[in-house]
Structures are given as C-alpha cells and as structure tokens.
Amino acid sequence: MDIIVLLVAFGLILFGFNWLMGYKKNHIVIDFDERYQDYKEYIGAIQRELVNQGRVVSYKGNSRFLIDGQVYVFVESNISMGGAPLQRTILKPEKGDSEVLQQVKGKMNVR
Fold first, then answer.
1. Exposed e or buried b for every residue in 70-98, given b needs 16+ CB within 10 A?
2. CATH of the domain at 36
3. Which of 30, 54, 75, 81 could form a Cys-Cys staple with 89, CB 3.0–4.6 A?
4. Whether the model pTM is above 0.90
C-alpha cells in the first residue's frame, strides 16, 4: 500500500513540474542562452529560432505569433535552473479563431 501511495505522489510531482515548466500539448518552449531585456530584440530572437526550426512564422503584434497557420500567444517565464536564472519562452496556441487568424483567413479567402 505504501508503494502505491509513493508512486502516485511521484506521478503528481512529475506532472506538476511539467505543467509549471510549460510542457503541454501543442506548446512551443524555447530556452535562450542569452537574456533579452529589449522586447523587440526578444521578438526577433524568437522569430529567428522558429525559422531555424523550419517553421513559417510572423509576428502579428500584441504578443501573438502566426506559426505554421496557427496563432500562438507569447508568454515569458523566468525560472531558476541550478541557481542561475533562465529566460524561458512559451508559445501557447490561442483558443478558437482569433482576430489575427480571421484577418489572415480573410486575406487568403479561406473559410
């Protein structure tokens, strides 16, 4: 019985850690070696990294990217890894058809 409780507790801790780190289905997580203070430089670095990964990307403003036809919301997270701060970029898929996606579909005549 104790082993079952231990395994369940371990599973919950692992699940919680992954949830806090941003590892969820369809999320894009990017960790940079350098820290970006300037927002425009940070956005440019995100775009370059996504292009290097082979994705089609454009920044639409208001923390929203259009990546491979899907709108993602940009969330910055600062975490401590081994005592050193790490700037983690999490791109979360936006739920439903956003204004940006509707505008792009309108320009492309997609229904």
1. ebbebeeeeeeeeeeeebbbbbbebeeeb
2. 3.30.1370
3. 30
4. no
